[in-house]
Amino acid sequence: MTDVTATNLPTNGELRDYVQLLKPRVMSLVVFTGLAGLVAAPAHIHPVLGFVAVLCIAVAAGGAGAINMWYERDVDALMNRTRARPLPMGKVEPQEALALGVALTGFAVCTMGLALNWVAAALLALTTFTYVIIYTVWLKRRTPQNIVIGGAAGAFPPMIGWAAATGDVSLASLSLFLIIFFWTPPHFWALALLKNEDYRRAGIPMMPVVAGAASTKKQMLVYTLLLLPLALAPWFLGAAGKIYAIGAALLGVAFVVHAVLVLRSDAPKPAARMFAFSIFYLSALFALLMFDAAR
Prior knowledge:
Pfam families: UbiA (PF01040). The protein folds into 2 domains: 11-169, UbiA prenyltransferase (Tetracycline Repressor, domain 2); 170-295.
């Protein structure tokens, strides 16, 4: 990997630079869905242990983010969206980012296993492996299916939360995994449509770069249509109630409408709106899941 970052600059990293390495915005959604899996699980867990489980998910996500930034510092320096990150700016040494990521990930997995159970810890380790090795190292620079396959990493947190409470994996927790798995491509490709030139310049074969905008938009619509019935699976399996089911159906229809609008327009605004709505969609869906579970 060619290093084109400003590694010769003196390191003057401040706390906010190290926090940025952890990708806090991405982490927040990971933590939220992990918490939803914990709350929706049909088992009682002590609040302190529940807090530890969510903390482990957050720490592992941050560690994986730091390793990701370490590995991608060369392409990050080429993209407008990422060139201001701490490593391309020379604010943090690459070795520091890698060490931080490995230490946080190892701590989180071990703590999850010792404090909760090793099923949850194994899923947490698998999540990190999927994100760092399968997605970041293997897939991202090789195939336009990178976000489809590698997106599994972001789908594990509710399963981890569920396993932390129950000690096992069930069809219901698998349905939560599948919801995020099928949500990820239309969510990320909406952003990729907006940042197409960035990815082209960096040589990353995102779907819009390789297949073109028209093909990408059609695939986004297909995924939202598949997601529409899939989001009802937790209700069908008894893990959520009618409030969740109604909300999931309405949110799903709105997601499909956004995908149709993107498909029918060459302007960037529909894609930007779909990207923003996709975040709201997933947040609202898992909020409804927790609301039903808490009733």
